[in-house]
Amino acid sequence: MNYRHHFHAGNFADVMKHVLLLQLLNRLNAKDKPYRYIDTHGGAGKYDLSSAAAQKSGEFLNGIHRLVKLDDSITRQAPAAVQQYLKIVEEMRNGSGKGAYPGSPWFALEGMRDIDKATIFEMQRDVFQQLYMNVRDRRAGLHERDAYEGLLAVIPPKEKRGLVMIDPPYEVERKDFPQLVELIQNAHKKWATGVFAIWYPIKDRAMIDRFEKKMIKTGIRRQLVCEVCVWPDDTPVGLNGCGLLVINPPWQFSQDADEALQWLFPHLRMQENSGHAAVRWLVGE
């Protein structure tokens, strides 16, 4: 496996994913009972945007870099989850240097409460070692394990409620993400009440259409699509946008997500009057 998130950390897709992750956790926090956060591909937990890998791609320049350059008068008008996201980034930068950027496990642990627990998978040995060094939290169990088999072994968690963040590298996924669809089906069968958030790249609209049709055919109810495309669909740039498919979204999350994405989109889009941000139900109740 050649994928390394160090090249992509802090890009527009990370911004979208991490803001919505915090919103999901905020909704779960609204109930007193504890929950479990499960991250199937945890990565290093923390990244250095001044590293050679990040500087080579420069993707963060059109992501987090755009937001931290905004005037305070603008960010103060942002939805609460966006402000929370920027505060977490700022706190890490203040403690670890201006190039520091949190990964999903870091954001999740910042957004969770003391009573909640996390299970974080990472199968690449060198990346797992970085995760182990970067994420030291008594609430988090770290596992050097392939999540495609590990996830099914840990659900349903003893808390009976929680969130699974699925963000695979998509190196082995082709066409309409068949392995991913199979994983989601099997996981949902074991934990029908769990919240599942699946991040995916948008490079080819026809492929996404096929993926959505396969997800509809699973028969799983309550599937919400959150989508941001910073380029038009037919732009040959490699990554035009990204989506987050949320199964069993918490109450009012759809409104939260739409508010956040509509605020983020004008600051992240690559061309005036092009691209889009949208939240829609793929499958309703």
From TrEMBL:
Keywords: Methyltransferase, RNA-binding, rRNA processing, S-adenosyl-L-methionine, Transferase. GO terms for molecular function: 23S rRNA (adenine(2030)-N(6))-methyltransferase activity; RNA binding. It holds the Pfam family RsmJ. It is an enzyme of class 2 (transferase). Its EC number is 2.1.1.266. InterPro entries: RlmJ (IPR007473), SAM-dependent_MTases_sf (IPR029063). The keyword Transferase applies. One of its GO terms (biological process) is rRNA base methylation. The active site is at D167. Specifically methylates the adenine in position 2030 of 23S rRNA. This is Ribosomal RNA large subunit methyltransferase J. It comes from Acinetobacter gerneri DSM 14967 = CIP 107464 = MTCC 9824. The lineage of its organism: Bacteria, Pseudomonadati, Pseudomonadota, Gammaproteobacteria, Moraxellales. The gene is rlmJ.
